[in-house]
Every structure is written in structure tokens, then in C-alpha cells.
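hiii, so i know i said id send this last week but things got crazy w the move. better late than never?? heres the sequnce for the chain we talked about at the cafe, plus the structure i predicted for it. fair warning i was half asleep when i ran it
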Amino acid sequence: GAEGSTLMSYFSKNQIQTLKPKVTFSTLRDLQCPVLQSNELQGKPEESCSTEELFEWLGAVLNQVSLDNKSSSFLSTYCCPQPNTVVEKAFLCTITGFIIPEKIMQLLEQLCCYFSEPKLAHWLTLTVHGFADSPVSWRESEHGFHKGGENLYNFVIFRNLDYWLQMAVGTHDDCPP
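okay and structure toks below
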């Protein structure tokens, strides 16, 4: 109808273009990192941390929360789980935008190539967030916002190419297949 043609002329007049994803890089120095073993999902006292501990730590790092448990901090008294190790330099890349699954697969493949040379990292992660207020999540269900709009998954890839896949969804959302 007339409404559709009005919309089309609006878009062509204003030359709506596909927005390129925004890429930001940062280097985190002297970062406390949990010690992980690919075959120990529950972790082992004094040997490795669990998947849950890693997920919590990752949330703190991505939100730039201090990990040093200072009692004077009003924001957080969180500290890195035990056992941990200090990494002199960690590389953080954030890509913001609408990213299709094929591009995520390409990113995963490129990240796996990183283990070939230089062989410094023991593991790396790739976290994919859906928008908190996205209308859909996994499967056929609508995405419920409720409190936080959780809608993400995280790959942890190890040097031997074992991997963990962690998923988080809101309380009323369908679980992924």
C-alpha cells in the first residue's frame, strides 16, 4: 500500500546503509587469570578452577571490575578464584554490531590458529552476547527481558583444541537446543 511506498522512499532518500561492526582492542596488563584444565569442568582444589568460577571471572574482566578485593572498593570486593596465575599481557577484542553465525565461525577458526604460533596462551575465550532487549532468543520462543535480559554463550578453547561451551539465558527463556 501507500504506507509501504512512503517507507521505501524514506529509506532510499536517506540512504540507509548497513552499519559496520565497531571493533575495539585493549591490552590488559598483569591480569590474574584462573588456572583451567580442559578435562576438569568442576575444578580441583589447588589444581584448577571450575567452569562457574571462570564464567564469573570473565564477567568481571569484561566489565572492567577490579580483581584485587580491596575493602575500600564500593563497587566490588570480588577476587580472582584460586588457583590463579598472573598473565603479563592479555588481549581483549570487542566487536559490537549485528554479526551473522558464519562470521562467528570464522572468528572461532581464526582464534584456533592462534595456538599454532606463538604457543603462549593455554586457553582463550569467545563470548557472544545477544542484545538484552532482543525480541528472540534460542528456538521459537520470544526473549523475556524480566531482570537482566541474559542471552549469551561463551566458548573456552584450549591449546589441545578441547573446548567448553557455556550458555546463559533468562529465567523464562527456552534453553538452547
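btw The first helix runs from residue 2 to 13. thought thatd interest u
miss u guys!!
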